[in-house]
Amino acid sequence: MSPAQATLPGGEARLLRGFAAKPIVAERALNATIWDAAGRAYTDLGGASHGVALVGHNHPRVVTAIQAQADRLLHVAAGIQSPERAAFLDALHARLPSQLARTFLANSGAEAMECALKLAVAATGRGRFVACRDSFHGRTAAALSVTHRAAFREPFQPMLPKTEFVAFNDEEALKSAVPRDTAAVVVEPVQGEGGVRAATASFLRAARDVATDVGAILVFDEVQSGLGRTGTFLAATPSGVVPDAVALAKGLAGGLPIGACSMTEELAARLPPGGHGSTYGGAPLACAAGSAVLGILDDERLLWRAHAIGERLLSGIRSLAHPLVRDVRGSGAMVGIELRVKPQPAITALQAQGFLVLGGGTTGLRLLPPLTVEDATLDKFLEVLPRCLG
Ligand SMILES: *Cc1c(COP(=O)(O)O)cnc(C)c1O
After folding, report:
1. Ligand 1 center from residue 141 Cα (angstroms)
2. Residue whose CA is at the smallest distance from ligand 1 atom 5
3. pLDDT tens for each residue of 285-340
């Protein structure tokens, strides 16, 4: 490793991360490639952007939209109307189920979840949540209280007091775990952080039914699985199940901070006047970028591409028949490689070969490639993968 790739002196050491930084100093990026200060190229299969680079890094159309908007107007708060916000919301709602007719705009996935959970409490007058084991919903107080992993949650107990965690895809457990004082049932249609596990259609239907039965709000967290990553605009679309609220974020503004909580009119109507807000949420700059992203998804046929990426990776990894690979799972361009060992050595070895991937679950690798990634790049990854697994 060249000295240019070591941790930068000074300021970077002041960043409170809670984990070690990779020895990579990013300088510029285009599509799936990031170049470091020494000119070395890395492919971002999720490890650099956590899935934010959905339409690739620095997509020219996103950059142009941001530049044009930056020249005119960076920021107005939600109390002032904005043509860019109007256009973005029109584009977003054209792609969402018609029942989800209203959207709160925020700046992150956790904030989108925070909105859904607060509204569920306001709408029901109840304070209990039901979520899934191995869930991840973000690091703010309410989002964290429905996040399962102990390492994320326990140092900060007590959070919101009452969350029941049920086994993912266990319909019977779910049905018996939702008491009448439940405000919200919260599900990731495809668990990401938990290791790329897709909910079955019948589990999503059971969640819909039990929430409706007890008068609870059904919240889908599609911060990672949404926006076409799995091959449909929402990962829940093929199940036919429509929640009361869905959280979106990650790639929605092509790299600018954004979060969206889209919900039914009925739920939106339960927001008390002045009951929620965000200084930056819905600002014109992020909205202009968001409209560009939604246009790119259509014009470059990226939902179709998500299927093709998933098939190429799944069949490529399966055909390796590697002894350390226990299972390979995928939902479009969201792929989990379950190992028989801890994933960190493989993540480090892949990084040395120029591929940045994520962990998922306790023994998994997780791939969230840009939907614009080229087949040749995926093939190169498949070529180096076996020797990086050890
Ligand atoms: C990333 C993620 C979040 C949190 O989003 P932030 O933008 O980091 O707050 C919430 N839910 C899921 C499913 C995520 O993948």
Report:
1. 13
2. 109
3. 999 999 999 999 999 999 999 999 999 999 999 999 999 999 999 999 999 999 99
Dihedral angle at the C-alpha atoms of 127, 130, 132, 134, nearest 10 degrees?
20
Of 328, 288, 248, 326, the closest CA to residue 51 belongs to: 248
How many whole angstroms separate alpha carbon 240 and alpha carbon 24? 43
Summarize the confidence of residues 339-368 as an average pLDDT.
Answer: 97
Query: Which of 121, 137, 140 lies closest to 129, judged by CA?
Result: 121
Name 318's Cβ contacts closer than 8 Å, sequence gap at least 6.
328
Ligand 1 mutation target, pool 136, 149, 280, most atoms within 8 A of CB: 136
In the chain, where the domains are located: 11-55+301-389, 62-299
| 11-55+301-389 shares its CATH topology with 62-299 | no
Q: Whose CA is nearest to atom 6 of ligand 1?
A: 109
Centre of ligand 1 from the C-alpha of residue 114, in Å: 11
Q: At what angle do helices 83-93 and 284-299 cross, to 10 degrees?
A: 40
Q: Which atom of ligand 1 is nearest to the CA of 250?
A: 7
CB contact set of 212 (below 8 Å; sequence gap of 6+): 218
The HSE-up count of residue 27 (CA atoms within 13 Å, CB side) is: 11
| Predicted model pTM | 0.97
Query: Ligand 1 mean position to 144 CA, how many Å?
Result: 10
Binding pocket residue ranges, ligand 1, CB within 6 Å: 108-110, 113, 136-138, 188, 192-193, 221, 223-224, 249
Span 62-299: which CATH code? 3.40.640.10
Q: How far is CA 343 from CA 22, 231, 360, in A?
A: 15, 26, 9
Q: In CATH, what number does 11-55+301-389 get?
A: 3.90.1150.10
Q: Name residue, tokens 């319909």.
A: 171
Going by alpha carbons, the residue nearest to atom 10 of ligand 1 is 137
Q: β-pairing, 162-166 with 128-132?
A: parallel
132 CA to centre of ligand 1 in angstroms: 15
